[in-house]
Amino acid sequence: MPTNLTLKNIPDEIYQKLKDSAETHRRSLNSEAIVCLEAVLMPSRLRPDERLARVRALRARLPEGVFRAEEMAALKREGRP
Hints:
It is built from 4 helices and no strands. It starts with 11 loop residues before the first helix and ends with a helix. It has helices at 12-24, 29-41, 48-61, 69-77. It is mostly helical.
């Protein structure tokens, strides 16, 4: 059964970062706090071959030709001295 938790005296900077992150991910503050806690307290440890399999599966679902390596590299270099 889920338990309620009240946080007090959260520093303004941390609150603002959590709020911004929640907005970016289209979550409530509560949901974003839970996701952050899960990421820190229950990190998923994947073997390199498992991680690679997931990446390949995601890549296979992308439309062909939309993400060309040369274009991605150029975009990454933009704005760098």
